[in-house]
Design a protein that fits this description.
Blueprint lengths: L22 E4 L5 H12 L9 E6 L10 H8 L4 E7 L3 H9 L3 E2 L11 H13 L14 E3 L8 E4 L4 E3 L8 E4 L3 E7 L2 E4 L9 E6 L3 E4 L2 E4 L13 E6 L2 E6 L3
Parallel strand pairs: 1-2, 2-3, 3-4, 5-7, 6-8, 7-9, 8-10, 9-11, 10-12
Antiparallel strand pairs: 11-14, 12-13, 14-15
Length: 250
């Protein structure tokens, strides 16, 4: 005799599919000591760069061998990163990650970087999808700072450009995910394309920085600027993974 049991939906919960925006860490080595040093060099002065962002660790570039996942997770969490999953790598690495409490997500796909040609197409595409006539477009989202920044002060324009109308003094730091415009002397640190935008630029009316960086490629004041740029209006961009500096009005 077959008995059909009536199903009843739970009153206290539901389970549904969900999409989660993730930050990806593409590991290229299992040398955690070196990784820790490079994380400190890149983010040690930017304690609020991440905001408890969920993180997927890409193991595809890790050479064969063991990886101490508990140590890796402990290294990442102080930077306000929340490791939740891994992708790629060997079966042994995936098993070790699961043992450490991470999910194995071989189907996870990383967002590809846009080519320059694709970026140029975006404004046209946006125009085609513009709202109906009479509906105003959203305002520009650049963060504008109109006061001088003193030593020890830091400003971060998350997800947008940064415009500074006063001096960035030595010891101060300006950071943006997009471009940085300083309409005054730039004497502190300027970090543009902080989340990897290689198209970002740094522009200033007086170039005298302690450090400039675009998409992780940086140059410090230990490498003196050429006389034709030092203290002059200049722009900085990234080309072939190198910082290129040029006068604003050549």
């Amino acid at each position: 005799m077959t008995v059909a049991l009536a199903g009843r939906a739970p009153a206290t919960f539901e389970i549904k599919s969900a999409n989660l925006p993730l930050v990806a860490l593409l590991l290229k080595s299992n040398d955690l000591a070196r990784l820790g040093q490079e994380l400190r060099d890149r983010f040690g002065d930017i304690p609020d760069f991440f905001d408890n962002d969920p993180l997927v660790i890409d193991l595809a570039g890790v050479p064969e061998g063991a990886l101490d996942f508990p140590e890796l997770l402990a290294m990442l969490r102080p930077y306000k990163l929340v490791p939740v999953a891994v992708r790629g790598g060997s079966e042994a690495l995936a098993a070790a990650a699961v043992q450490a409490g991470l999910a194995a997500t071989p189907e996870a796909a990383l967002t590809p970087a846009l080519s320059q040609r694709e970026r140029e197409k975006q404004p046209k595409k946006a125009a085609e999808n513009a709202p109906a006539e009479g509906v105003p477009p959203p305002p520009a989202s650049a963060l504008v700072i109109d006061k001088p920044l003193r030593s020890g002060q830091q400003v971060y324009a998350r997800g947008r450009d940064l415009v500074v109308l006063s001096m960035v003094n030595p010891g101060a730091e300006v950071i943006a995910d997009g471009h940085i415009h300083v309409y005054a002397p730039l004497r502190g640190k300027a970090i543009a394309g902080a989340r990897g935008d290689a198209q970002a630029r740094i522009l200033t009316l007086c170039l005298e920085p302690e450090l400039v960086s675009i998409a992780g490629v940086y140059r410090t004041s230990e490498n003196p600027l050429p006389p034709q740029l030092l203290g002059k209006p200049a722009q900085i961009r990234l080309q072939d993974n190198k910082l290129v500096m040029a006068p604003l009005n050549p």
